[in-house]
Design brief:
about 40% helix, binds zinc ion, alpha/beta, globular, Rossmann fold, two-stranded antiparallel sheet, 2 domains, about 230 residues, single chain, 4-stranded parallel beta sheet
Amino acid sequence: MKTELNKLFGDFVSIFFPRECGCCGCVLKRQEKFICVACDFHLPYTNFHEYSDNDTARQLWGKAPVEEACSFLLLQKDSRVEHLIYQIKYNRQPFLAEYFGYQYGLKLLKVQAYQGIDFIVPVPLHSSKFRKRGYNQSAYFGRGLSRAMEIPLREDILIRKKATISQTGKGRLDRYENVNDVFDCQPTVLMANVHILLVDDVLTTGATIVSAALTLLASFDCRISIVTLARA
Ligand SMILES: [Zn+2]
């Protein structure tokens, strides 16, 4: 009886506040959660976690010594994934990042290369950006991964000193030299011989996550693997 009432109430609420698919904006059916069946079927999943020699890993070669790297989705212009990233970053729907983090975590759990990870560390936002947005979407992605993989999420390790990375007019090499003063590590945190999963929402040039990885490697006796929600 109670579940019937809940269903009725849910239907009543959805008339006035229809839930929308995070990837295409269509109205979700009762049994659909966060994204519609069509989007789930058509999303460009990379399957990068299935092989170490993937495009995300290749992009980081020679820039930061990481163990493994992969991205869940391919981000293309005017696509479902672009809509999704917009909802997550600019339309106050970070729970979509958590949902996809959880889904990816379930996949990574089955991959040998992602076993034995000690902490999940999200790339932090600068405090000014955090205040403006109200949340860090990468932390939500990390939270989903953390729940699925049962690995603690640590938001207290990395600190962001600079809001943006200035890249204009810089050559490719300068770009990476330029990012060294973007992040810092919390001096009170002590770690040794740990494997850290560094996570971010979108991998574009890679400059941000490389900088974060290099900062962690310089501060702790650690190994780093990288996971992003999408890859541009
Ligand atoms: Zn959809």
